[in-house]
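Handout, page 2. Input:
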Amino acid sequence: MTNIPNGQVRMPRHHWLVRYYRAQLRFALGVLGALRLIPRSLATAGYAWLRRTEVPMKGAAVKSSIRFKLVVPVLVVVGVIALVWMLVTRWQSPDEPSGTRGIHGTTIPSEPPVELDAWRRPTTTDPREFAIAYARAIWTYDTTRHTYVDWQNAVTAFADPTSAAPQVAKSLLPQWAEWDQLQSRRARATATSITAEITPDLAAMVNRSQAPNGWHAYVVRGKQTVIRDTDTRVLDRQAAVAVGCTPQCRFWSATSQVAP
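Output:
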């Protein structure tokens, strides 16, 4: 620290270019951490290191300035490249290109994603209604109208995008290989007679205050009518679905394994 005439104490600061790169690095850590391109622990460690080195050590300002001028720009560039790569791979599936090539090399945009009425996520504070809507979404499809990615996106919309819940939400859908088989037979399915009930085990968990605030869980059951080519079958479906409502409801977790 250095003394100034009015008696106040002024903290030493890095060169303005170093401060600029530090700000860029802080922003890159925040973006990459939020999008889970890097582990949260790594982003936290990066923030802690930036705080520790906020004030340059005495006698090390020149060396620190040179190090930041060389290293930090490289880290920022790497972070931007990773961010662009994530955006490209997330919103453009290799199996579902965003457009087709015209005869002169121009790109013809593809049609907008299809969303079935049964996929719509309700805006509600009623956890039972929300659980039934989620079950309807995972048991309803039409391979002649939408892609597998459309279905995945619709189901993940039930969950909080800032958590791991979207991955869990779409885990109850068929696998890619199963989807290919359904698509080859132009399969479609609808869900009816869906019910949601609280089992004694789930009720006991809530009564013992073992569940988070606003947490509700149900066993959902329904009839799924599946049409493949000219073959029609009616199947019994069930799943355990947890919903968090604070007060608006969002998907929490689910599993197809239901205890008797």
